[in-house]
Amino acid sequence: MGMLPNRQIWTWFEGEWHEGNLPIMGAADHGTWLGTLVFDGARYFNGVMPDLDLHCARVNASTKALGMNECIDTVKIIQLVEEGVKKFSGDKALYIRPMCWSKLAGASTVDPDPNSTAFALCIEEESMPAFTGTTLTTTSFTRPTLSSAVVNAKAGCLYPNNARMLQEAQSKGFANAICCDALGNVAETATANIFMVKNGEVYTPVPNGTFLSGITRARVIQLMRDAGETVHEIVLKLEDFHTADEIFMTGNYSKVTPVIKFEERELPIGEKTTKARDLYFAWAGA
Ligand code: PMP
Predict the structure, then answer these.
(1) What are phi and psi of 213, to 5 degrees?
(2) For a designed S-S bond to 187, which of 44, 198, 211, 213 qualifies (C-beta 3.0 to 4.6 A apart)?
């Protein structure tokens, strides 16, 4: 990705829409310095917003996972998104990001006051990447477990770990990395879920609580199964990916992304990857 510097942005905060990159947090807000912030990402493109309801519901689930109380109904978030996208011309793709954070400290400062949750909705112009493929390497960093991080939330505080995976990958000449969990099983990439194809069947790591079991991942699995494909959710090792016929990623931002190189091995944009992408776009009505 890489957000454009001059993109149009609209932000809803405290009952009003504001154009641009609105300041929303105070210097002393709990979320500012103690990292109690959750977000979710949905997309608008070609007139559709696939799985918007699930993305809006997940931001509230993430809020609770960080010990904060929900401050806005999921239905209200959906209504605000529908209102907000009308502020744009309609022909450009958008990134839709609801966010919740804690304003006040709780009894022991490091804990949030559960009733001080704030909400903002930021919508930005962001084009959909072309279906041209990306490159993956491995990484020395791993996903934390639930006992050491809030992996049951989509929380900003998890992303510096993913950022260092990306920087490590970039330093090796790759765009992204397949990361493993603490047991050495493949988890996901630094930005999306991971799939592979072998002998005509589709494989993806079984959710084990260490990685984000994505909304796009679930949608693609369902669409592929409904179309007669075999999709296995099982424990996978890096070796499996080294011998895969196809690899692709799923995530809200880019939907289905083909992987055209894993380490030194080049891969085709194969039949199943293309089918997953086509099924997703057909289902979305895009
Ligand atoms: N894993 C990570 C680390 C992500 O940031 C994302 C993007 N939200 C995903 C997986 C994919 O999740 P989803 O399909 O719900 O966007």
Answers:
(1) -85, 90
(2) 211
